[in-house]
Amino acid sequence: MARRVFFSFHFDNDYSRTQQVRNIGAIEGNKPVSKNDWEQISNNEKGDRDKKIAKWIDDNLYGKSCTVVLVGQDTADRKWINYEIVKSWNAGMGVVGIRIHGLKNLEGNIAKIGNNPFDYIPILDTEKKLSSIVKCYNPPGSNSKERYAWIRQNLVNAIEEAIEIRNGY
User: Fold this and answer.
1) Cα-based torsion angle of the residue sequence 147, 71, 161, 24 in order, rounded to the nearest 10 degrees
2) How do residues 101-135 score in pLDDT, each as one tens digit?
3) 102 exposed, middle or buried (CB, 10 Å; 0-12, 13-18, 19+)?
4) Which of 49, 55, 64, 73 could covalently link to 6 via disulfide, CB atoms 3.0 to 4.6 Å apart?
């Protein structure tokens, strides 16, 4: 049975890279958001905009067992990425990071490695960060094709491990 997964990523920078991962097919992810969909969700008055984005995230997290944060160059410490991570963790979902900076985008470019997003999330009532528990994988390989192959081969296991980690915490 395929796991139902929520993908968290920096839309503007990493959309094409994330689609490569989402198209692996080994897991059932949330419906991909098109640029038009995202503009419709996010183009509102500030107060209304934040409520609509939070509702969209909450609705899409419902029924999922794990959140996969696809970590690009500028993913870490973004308001909505942090929101998705915290909501997922607090809901008892598995959470895992997969770095995608080494995958080519539509223009054939790769990005610089970004910070670990879990370094910015404190664990309640402790001085520890979520990165002390949650894994953030950096796929090995000397090129985009090798890194994609590692993700394709290891994504399901990373998700299962994230769920086990969360269940044990």
Assistant:
1) -50
2) 999 998 999 999 999 999 999 998 888 999 999 99
3) buried
4) 64
Cβ within 8 Å of residue 22, ≥6 positions away: 7, 29, 32
Identify the helix (H) or strand (E) that includes residue 34. Answer: none
The first and second tokens of residue 89, run together, are 């963790």
Find out whether 138 and 99 touch, Cβ atoms under 8 Å: yes
8 has pLDDT over 60: yes
Pair of tokens at residue 63: 């029924």
In a 13 Å sphere around the CA of 46, the CA atoms on its Cβ side amount to 0
The number of domains in the chain is: 1
Alpha-carbon Rg for the chain in angstroms: 15
pTM above 0.70, yes or no: yes
Question: The domain containing residue 57 runs over which residues?
Answer: 4-167
For the domain that residue 21 is a member of, what is the CATH number?
Answer: 3.40.50
Question: Tokens 């920096």 — which residue?
Answer: 10
- CA distances, 165 to each of 106, 141, 159 (Å): 34, 26, 10
Residue 120 three-state SS: helix
